Write the structure tokens for this entry.
Amino acid sequence: MYKRVKTDKECRLENNETFTPVATLEDESGGKCQISIDDHCYVLRLRQDGGKYRTTPFIFREAFLVLATLDAPK
């Protein structure tokens, strides 16, 4: 189960671009999910093997609950 942890300062996508998360979730087996803002929309990104992130189309329950606590993107 993912739980919200201290937000990471910067992360890297698979194409080596960086992004700044607004919230970070981590599970008991070391999986990480970053929530960031892109084009005024929240985006969920999951850490892949190698430590880089890939955007996911899935909104799982724990991420939904964190999203509900965030202010609307500007």
Notes: The beta strands are 3-5, 11-12, 18-19, 21-26, 32-38, 41-47, 53-55. The chain has one helix and seven strands. Helices lie at 61-67.
